[in-house]
Design a protein that fits this description.
By secondary structure, the chain is α/β, with parallel strands linked by helices. It is about 25% helix and about 25% strand. Strands 1, 2, 3, 4, 5, 6 and 7 form a 7-stranded parallel beta sheet that branches. The longest helix has 20 residues.
C-alpha cells in the first residue's frame, strides 16, 4: 500500500479538494481502493466538462449533507439547431432534474454555466427552492425559469442571471435578504 493512503480521510479530502475539479478527484479512485468514493464527501464541488446527462448521476452520489460550493460548467453542445418536440421535452426535463438534484445538496453558493445548452430552445424549467444558498449564478442561454408557489430563497443575498428569463416581480419577494440582483437578457433566438 502507498504511504499517502495511510493519511486520515480529512487529509485525503484536503488533497482531493486541491485538485479543483470533481472529475479529476473521481479519477483518483484508480490509485487505490482507499480513495474510491472519497470525492463524494467534498464540500466544494466543481464540475467542469461533465455532460449534462451524467451530472445528475454524479450529484446523486454526493454524500456530504450540505455543500459550500456547487459549481457546474456544462460543456458546449454540438451545433444542434432544431429539435423535435420529444427532444425538447427531454432536454427541459433533464435540466429541471439537474436543478432539483442541486437543490437537494443545499449549496451555500450555486453556479450553473451552460453557454449553449441548445440555442433558441427556450427550455421551460421549474426553479426549486435553495434554502441555504446565499449566492446563485445562472449563465444559461434561453432558460425560462418558472417559479412554483412553494419556491423560496430565504438566505439568498446575491442573484446573477445571464441569458435566463424569469418573472423578476414574482422572484424578488421570495428572496427576503436579496441585496444584489444582476440580470442580463438572453440574446434573441435565431430565425427559424
Amino acid at each position: 500500500m502507498d504511504r499517502i493512503s495511510f493519511l486520515s480521510d480529512d487529509l485525503l479530502l484536503l488533497v482531493l479538494g486541491r485538485l479543483g475539479c470533481v472529475r479529476t478527484a473521481m479519477r483518483t479512485s484508480l490509485l487505490s481502493r482507499r480513495w474510491r468514493g472519497l470525492w463524494s464527501r467534498l464540500r466544494r464541488l466543481v464540475f467542469c466538462g461533465v455532460a449534462l446527462r451524467r451530472l445528475e448521476l454524479a450529484l446523486a452520489r454526493v454524500s456530504c449533507p450540505a455543500v459550500s460550493l456547487l459549481d457546474i460548467h456544462v460543456p458546449k453542445q454540438g451545433s444542434l439547431t432544431r429539435l423535435s418536440r420529444r427532444q425538447h421535452a427531454a432536454g427541459a426535463a433533464t435540466v429541471g432534474s439537474l436543478l432539483r438534484a442541486a437543490a437537494r445538496l443545499s449549496p451555500d453558493v450555486f453556479v450553473l454555466t451552460a453557454p449553449t445548452l441548445l440555442p433558441g430552445c427556450g427550455w421551460e424549467v421549474d426553479l426549486p427552492s435553495f434554502h441555504r444558498a446565499s449566492s446563485i449564478k445562472f449563465d444559461v442561454v434561453h432558460l425560462l425559469l418558472q417559479l412554483p408557489s412553494e419556491t423560496l430563497f430565504p438566505a439568498l443575498d446575491t442573484l446573477c442571471l445571464s441569458g435566463c428569463f424569469v418573472e423578476v416581480a414574482t422572484l424578488v419577494p421570495r428572496c427576503p435578504r436579496l441585496r444584489v440582483l444582476k440580470v442580463r437578457a438572453s440574446p434573441p433566438a435565431p430565425p427559424k
